[in-house]
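FAQ: What does the model actually see?

It sees only this:
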Amino acid sequence: MPSLDYREAVHALYGLQCFGVKLGLEKISSLLACLGNPHHTFPACHIAGTNGKGTCAAVLDAILAAHGIQSGLYTSPHLVSMRERIKTSGRTVPENYVAGWVCEHLDYIMRNRVTFFETITAMAFDYFGHKKVGAAAVEVGLGGRYDATNVVYPRVGVITSIGLEHTRYLGETITSVAREKAGIAKPGVPLLCGEKKRAAVKVIGEATRCAGGSLHLLDEVVSVSQLKILPTGTRFDYRGPGLRLRGVSVPLYGVHNLRNVALGLWAAELMLAELGLRLQEDAFCHALKELVWPARFQRLKVKDGPELVLDVAHNPPAAAKLNRLFQRIYPSQRALVVTALAGDKDHAKFILHLLKMADRFIFPHVDFGRAESGSGSRDPENLKGLVKRYSPQAAAHVSPDMKDALEQAFRLAEGSPVVVTGSFHTVGEAMRILNIKA
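And it is asked to produce this:
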């Protein structure tokens, strides 16, 4: 195959979305076998959950790097650049590696109809093997049991939370979703769990025991308490099985995020022990203070404009947390919300949560590029109709694109915070237009 430059390689990768979403491990296993099974060359922590798994993974990765480990981080989806999904020690995978890898393997991928996510996962594991990472944090893409990442045999597993999502693939009840996510459980591997709902925890416990693993609940092992909300994040105390941190700060907000941070800290304790390394309190504190994890209630000041909040909430549980956090940070203000949602989400419940914190909405037309999977963008007119149905006094407008929506929002904000939310794609589009780095 002729050589490809980076843009051509990315175009080819996105073209694989025509193969849709296919849950199962056969194709990813075959592709990895052709690559020499690079996922067997590094110890991993495998992280599943409805919300918060990326935050947990980012915390773990930062702590591993702060202890001098060449770490790997695999997360999804991305905000601005596909390269964000694959990082080693905080650095994104180089453009020339992506271009060379795609050029070398695209023929096999096309002939075998390997999906976009399977391909990116294989590339990530191959890159980690190439970089000889000492450990990796691997975030599940969808579900757990049949997700392409479930080829790893981890040292530690994590389930952050359980909520209704991707019901077309994971089932329409909390227990069915929990069962799919618990599919990451492995024999002899501790599975850390931040979920509190009894029905979900029961299913996860049963699945873990059947797999020969052991389930450990966050609230029974770890203590985390919020001390103070700062302009730049949160100060908190943490006590885990082998580590105590007092008054440490992290540039994130909300009790829900602290639980995800605590899971990352706990996983780091166990991973470092597995690697035979001593826990260094100063390394933990430095990693948390310098953590870079954008678009999780990220607060920015627009030049000559309003305060901007970027949050990738994309389902009702995340929207509920966004509302609670907004009201905590801005107790006397209402937001102006700019949002576009994927077509496969529960739009009504999402909008109902946002109506508790906002009375002005702008719904831009955003091309999600995934219409064939049912997760292309929801018609903005439909979202506007939901707002007017539930809150006739609220203002709702449709905008032709994100650029126009942001210009309108900044012009109309009148001192109110502008919140951009609804999906990674929505927030990423705003970040691209505003030239905000991910």
